[in-house]
Structure formats: structure tokens, C-alpha cells
Design goal:
It contains no helices and ten strands. With about 130 residues, it is an all-beta fold. The strands form three sheets. It has a four-stranded antiparallel beta sheet, with no helix packed on it. A four-stranded antiparallel beta sheet has the order 4-9-6-7, with no helix packed on it. The chain has a two-stranded antiparallel sheet with strand order 1-2. Strand 6 and strand 7 form a beta hairpin.
Length: about 130
């Protein structure tokens, strides 16, 4: 299943709306693992994913409300946990953008854990593109 694509586009504009910088990239991989979960208010949700970071091409995770993410959380989460995801602000990385922020393989039923500290559910989505 080669040829799975993710497209990243970043644009920065000044106060007058003029584009001052932009960047885009099309990443191609062999497999993509996606998730779309609801994290209950004042609760948590576990996301079972399997990601070998040595084959990671790109990743993105975004939540519609602030949540905290931990990795391989069996009571002692792996670094760089915890990671706060602000509402609507993607957590992303792709090859060529420096070192990947996730440095350990993700595996098992608690590979990703999202915690919502206050009332109101959060929808958390993401994908890992691997080659």
C-alpha cells in the first residue's frame, strides 16, 4: 500500500495580512495509522496504536479542547510526556523538521493517553505516517 500522502502547509502573515513566510511539504509513506477519539470531560481515553519511530515519516495530533497527552502510560509514562495540546493547535512533525519529538516506539493499549482536566468532552484526532 505504497503512496499514502500527507500534505503540510504553513503560512505566516503580518498584521496587514501580507504573507511573510510560507512552507509546504508533501510526505509519502507506506502506511498510515489514524485515530479519532472522544476524551470525556474530567476523564481520560487510551488509544492503542503501534508506531515504530525508526520508520516514522510524519505525525500530527490535534484536539478541539485542551488535553494532556502521555506516551506508553502504564503508570510511568515515557518521555517526553506529558505534552499539553492546546485547543485547535496541531502537534506535528515531519522528516526534515529536525529531530522527531517522539523518540520511543508506541505500542499497546495505552500507547497514547489523553486526559481532559475539566468538564466537557474533547475530540482528539491524529495520524502517524510510516515508511
Amino acid at each position: 500500500m505504497a503512496g499514502i500522502r500527507q500534505t503540510y502547509a504553513i503560512s505566516i502573515k503580518d498584521d496587514a495580512g501580507r504573507a511573510v513566510a510560507s512552507e509546504s511539504a508533501i510526505l509519502v509513506g507506506d502506511a498510515e495509522e489514524e485515530f479519532n477519539v472522544t476524551c470525556p470531560g474530567s476523564g481520560n481515553v487510551l488509544v492503542p496504536v503501534s508506531v515504530d519511530v525508526s520508520s516514522l515519516v510524519a505525525l500530527w495530533i490535534v484536539s478541539d479542547k485542551e488535553v494532556t497527552m502521555t506516551l506508553n502510560d502504564d503508570g510511568t509514562p515515557d518521555a517526553p510526556s506529558p505534552i499539553t495540546l492546546a485547543a485547535g493547535i496541531p502537534y506535528w512533525w515531519y522528516t526534515g523538521k529536525g529531530a522527531c519529538p517522539i523518540t520511543i516506539d508506541l505500542a499497546g493499549p495505552n500507547a497514547l493517553k489523553f486526559v481532559k482536566a475539566d468538564a466537557g468532552d474533547a475530540v482528539v484526532k491524529g495520524a502517524f505516517l510510516t515508511s
